Known about the structure:
Number of helices of chain A: 11
Radius of gyration of chain A: 18 Å
Distance between the termini of chain B: 65 Å
Largest sheet of chain B: none
Order of helices and strands of chain A: EEEHEHEHEHEHEEEHEHEHHEHEHE
CATH class of the largest domain in chain A: Alpha Beta
CATH superfamily of the largest domain in chain A: Stage V sporulation protein AD
CATH architecture of the largest domain in chain A: 3-Layer(aba) Sandwich
Number of domains of chain A: 2
Shape of chain B: extended
Strand content of chain B: under 5%
Structural class of chain A: alpha/beta
Strand content of chain A: 15-25%
Largest interface: A-B, 30 and 39 residues
Helix content of chain A: 25-40%
Largest sheet of chain A: 7 strands, mixed
Oligomer: heterodimer
CATH topology of the largest domain in chain A: Peroxisomal Thiolase, Chain A, domain 1
Distance between the termini of chain A: 25 Å
Number of helices of chain B: 8
Amino acid sequence: MNKHLGKQTIRFDNPPVILASSSIVGPREGEGPLATYFDTIIEDELYGESTWEKAESKLIEKALEKVIEKANKTIDDVKYIISGDLLNQLTASTFGIRNFKVPFIGVYGACSTMAESLSVAAIIVEGGFADYVIASTSSHFCCAEKQFRSPLELGGQRPLTSTWTVTGSGAIFLAESGEGPKITYITTGKIVDFNIKDAMNMGAVMAPAAADTIINHFIDTERDENYYDLIVTGDLGKVGKELLLDILKQYNYDITSKYMDCGIEIFEADKQDTHSGGSGCGCGAVTLAGYILSEMGKGKWKKVLFVATGAMLSQVSLQQGESIPGIAHAVAIEN
Amino acid sequence: MDKAKQIKQNYKEMVEKASPSSNMGVNCAWAFFVGGTICVIGQIITEVLKTYGYAKDDAAMMTTVILIFIGALLTGLNIYDNIGKYAGAGSIVPITGFSNSVVAPAMEYKKEGYILGMGARMFTVAGPVIVYGVISSVVVGIIYYFFK
């Protein structure tokens, strides 16, 4: 029972190992500063399919195939796939893995899904319920625009606080033992709602949730910002970054020198017209699977706290006048 | 926790401070320039039609039809949204913008079928404009009838 620390954290006594990770991204991400870190860059957003949704399913399928290949395993070795995405009924995940015939646990945490699926996968592996588990997620700009905002060809202006949904999928192969970075702690976030109703300012929605999870992680683990080489959030963007650092300072934590946001890293905002930054499940997923884990392998960072952030946006509740709740899950990854 | 409550109370101000606002001057200039250009094009079409012998009312109606066609064509060619990115209201308010707001969802939902996809959802953006446009014209018509 003593694996559970404080309010929200779990400590893994036999930390699950990240055997391999894979990332696949869309053309715009492939023109961004992290391009060289991704396994595959697709040439057009439709990816040879007839609909955006099919294209996103194919992204997940390919990311999974790749991660199994990189881990030197076969699909029969995989005991569970934990996956989720932004689409209704997790369309991308369910259709993407339909041919794999592997037990599937679907998760939804909006853009926090990568940390959520990784947390569930780590619990399963460390609990001894399975030796090999894959955690994955995806997002697609065109699908997300269609479902949450407006048709793609509708002419209008995006406010500077808005973010750009990343087209991409990341997958992580977890194992009981082996070579690779380990998941040592997870801190599961709670719903945090600071009464923001602006769907074009997701950074503001998610920053309080990120702050809450980071603070609780520090309290539960008796660690602080000095312990980590890198504290990285999923997709707060420029606006959310400023708010997060501000809130944490009010709690006397100054993470500025250790801090990075996947949404800010993945695009060159001024050149690529992405305003506040990248967003979506895929944003944190491909940045973790592509950039962060590969740099950890090279030794740039040893102790990383990955905090994926999600805005639980629903068109229905928003139109009924509700605010947008936020959530953030943290996963401590250490070499 | 008191601190959490305090931050939550001040949060709206913090967000406003952290959020960059759009450059209104530049946006207005773009809207004025593009909106004006669309109107000039419309006027040219009308004048050309008149030289071909069309009456003023007929020429105006045909201009509307032609502008709607151009808006739809540019939407289909993936051009209109790029104009809208700079022009904002300048390309939304003219009738070409109305055309764009019908064709864009039609294109998006075509994949869900011609009846329940395209047919049903074509007016998701323009629908409210039509509904409240008709209602206001009825109201104005009644006022006009009594106070003529």
